[in-house]
Amino acid sequence: MTDLPYPVSTTAPVSGEQLALALTTTTVPAFVTGPWEAGMPVIWVNEAFERLVGVGAEDLGLLGPHPLLALVEDDPHRAAAQADLAAGRAMRRIVSARKRDGGVSWLQVDVTPMPRAEGEELRWVGVTTDVSEYVDQQAAQLASLEVERRERADLDLIAQTTELLGDLEYPFALRDIADLLRSLVPWSGFYLNDDGLQYADGVDVASPPTGRGRRHTRYVPETWHVDLAGDPSGVVGGHADVHDVGTAPSPDAAPAVDHVQELLDGVVDGPVRLDLSGSYGPHTASGWLRRDLVRRVVEESGVVPRSVVVHAVAGRRRVLGLLATWHGDAARGPGADAGGRAEPAPEHIFTVVEVVARRAGTAIDNARLYAREHRLAEALQRAMLPEQADVTGLDVWTYYAPNAEHAQVGGDWYDVLQISEGTVGLVIGDVVGHDVEAAAAMGQLRSVVRAYAYELTTPGTVLDRVDQLVTGMRVPRPASMVYATLHHVTDDDSWSVEYTRAGHLPPLLLRDGDVRLLSGASGSLVGFGTAARKTGREVLRRGDVLLFYTDGLIERRDRSLKVGLDTLVEMSGRITARDAAGVGEELLSRLADSPEDDVAIVVVRVPDPVQDAQVTALSPRSRRWLLPSEPASIGRARHAVLRTCQAWGLVESAAAELVVSELVANGVLHGWGNIALRLFDTGDGLRIEVEDANPAPPVATDGHPNRVGGFGMQIVERLADWGWRPAGTGKLVWAKLRPQPMQPDEPAPALG
Amino acid sequence: MIEIATSSTTTTLVIAGDLDLAERDQFPEIAARVVGLRRQLLVIDMCRVTFMDSTGAAFLISLADSGRKRGGATVLRGADERDLFVLEVCGALDLFRVDHDHHCEQSDVSTGATPVHLPQRHRPS
């Protein structure tokens, strides 16, 4: 047994009369109606209902069938609720009703069928509850949720545009951003002002950051002149900053003010609304933009736009272009009344478009400025890079590795010049330091040496004149160099060398396994000579190798220069390669393990046609070349491959030539800086590596018609396995030729 | 080096040397002149071409394509297997009538490399 804490009620149960009285006097409005088939006549209402509605049951009877419906506003759920009533099921719904004071109240109406005896007519009892407070609260919540959702969507859109702006090399970046904006407005598009406005799908980063141009003459056909009597002007969406451009046209009216040009000139900040029915001069910004916009919007949406909003796409110094958005106010022809005007666009759209326009402006400006700086640095550095002319009759290999983090040039340099038929000039030099100033001094010195080299041939004389000029030029850094000339004697097809040294390490002469330092003709650093320069001479034999280098090749912190030079001589004595590239490769593989300074090397070999064909060298089967980024390098790379294939006895030279040509052409076209070419004999096919300083990966296009050489990588793919990886600050593209079926009948590949 | 010769019906283009990116600067002018001659038949003589890559192929394709648009035909003469391979990879062999019967006068210097069998698509005869 449980003891209840209070006594169980013993009072008498509530009587029926009391219940009826309770229903009548309660503050909850209640009513009783007849059956659905009879039009649900209101039979009884309580006092609260009368107070709420203001009429009694008798007055409601005057309203005809379904009198309660007359009291509430129509709503979309009415049909479903009525189906419930017709079927005799209980029904609950929320309806709105006009209050007597003119306001709206929300009522929850519960209508329940009353139990009835057999043969009795169905009665419904209804109770209404005022839920206005809750409905309003919910509406406010929904509204704030909607605002939040929209803000999130706007932020998301801005984030997406930022991502797209990150890669302006993609040719449709602006078009994609405009497409994104079209989730907010029916049409949007970018225009850039590069010597006149033009529609822009993407940014030509190669074009300098202009924003210039006050005559907009790119041809756009006149498609549709919006001829409206209506006045389209008006403040856009309550946005106070929007200036109206143009007024309603009239035949006599003077051309409207060119507000778009003012926007481009930065006179106004914008955005401005451009009235597309205005009349403007044909080459004005507004006139051009009106023609182009009408044509595009009509083409894409089939609707004639009446006005657009134009935002400035501003860079650092000037406005680079425009972002035009059409908000969907179709021109409805003459006679359209004020009601035909489009709803003013919500404020947030302007904010988003403005933000996108600003970001685009900054990104375009940055991309173009960077591209310009990059081109400038590239051009200057390329102009200063060492050059190797193709010299006839000699096998020449050069190597240049500046030890600078951010530059491609240092203080070291070399020059190989074909001075005249049978005379080759050769310079190797080193300006102290490896910074930009050293590179600049190097550039000056190089020009001076070149100038005299072409004029005077005897090395001592050339250096005397260089000394004189450099003393007067105030070249800021001391420099050392070797200048040598090689002469071809036609009678016996032999070569001789003359050289002079200005404080530079002696060149090496490699002959039949012996190494000799050409240490004669020495003198002080360039510009410091007081005595006349001397000239050393050597007669060269077939198979001789001359080795010119800078101290970066041998200088290490942990050993003296003397020890380094001894090591070089010792290493050189062991070189077995019978081509200049092979000699260089052996040197680098043994010496330039961790260079601490710039390295420049020139290897000159006098070919020995008889011996070279008979002896197969045991030198490492890898080669490397550093090629300037210019089209002529492509041919040189092919020759290098042919020569190497011949030296290694590889038969796939035709395919190798094709692959290397495509890879180097890509490097020249899309790469940055010098191109490093490496070849390896894997024993299972030739491996070709091409490295440049552009980190962007190669793209195998499907042969885009506008991209010359778009098939290049497809050719590579057919002949080789290929791939790429980041290397240093740039990338390395490799290709390994697939082994060709061996053809025993075929002769050895000929020299190209 | 590229030479243009013309008769009443035929334009003949004699190409010598390498046909690669290094030669690209002269392509537009030559293409304009060939198109300007408006001959129905264009013969491209490649006997003395030492090398052609995709850039060179793109040039030949542009010539053949503009010829075809006017209802003309382009004959390729003296192209070696490798040149045809390049055109095939570019998907452009159909643009050319390849003259297989032609024998170059100086066939020994026609290419820089020994003929090597490159993978070839079966060509419809």
Summary of the model, kept short:
With 752 residues, chain A is an alpha+beta fold.
Describe the 3D structure:
The complex is a heterodimer of chains A (752) and B (125). With 752 residues, chain A is of the alpha+beta class. Chain A folds into four domains: 16-130, Beta-Lactamase, CATH 3.30.450; 147-371, Beta-Lactamase (2-Layer Sandwich); 388-606, Phosphatase 2c, domain 1 (4-Layer Sandwich), CATH 3.60.40.10; 621-752, 2-Layer Sandwich (Heat Shock Protein 90), CATH 3.30.565. Chain A is built from 17 helices and 27 strands. In chain A, the strands form five sheets. In chain A, strands 7-6-11-10-9-8 form a six-stranded mixed sheet, with helices on both faces. In chain A, strands 12-14-15-16-17-20 form a six-stranded mixed sheet, with helices on one face. In chain A, helix 5 (132-165) packs antiparallel against helix 6 (173-181), helix 15 runs antiparallel to helix 16 and helix 16 (653-670) packs antiparallel against helix 17 (712-719). The radius of gyration of chain A is 44 Å and the shape is elongated. Residues 226-253, 332-342, 703-709 and 741-752 of chain A have low confidence and may be disordered. Chain B is α/β, with parallel strands linked by helices and 125 residues long. Chain B has one domain (2-104): STAS domain (Transcription Regulator spoIIAA, 2-Layer Sandwich). Helix content of chain B is 29%, strand content 28%. Chain B has a five-stranded mixed sheet with strand order 1-2-3-4-5. In chain B, helix 3 links the parallel strand 4 (73-77) and strand 5. Classes of the chains: A alpha+beta (752), B alpha/beta (125). Chain A: InterPro entries: Bact_Sigma-Reg, HATPase_C_sf, HATPase_dom, PAC, PAS, PAS-assoc_C, PAS-like_dom_sf, PPM-type-like_dom_sf. Chain A: Pfam families: HATPase_c_2, PAS_9, SpoIIE. Chain A: Residues 88-143 form the PAC domain.
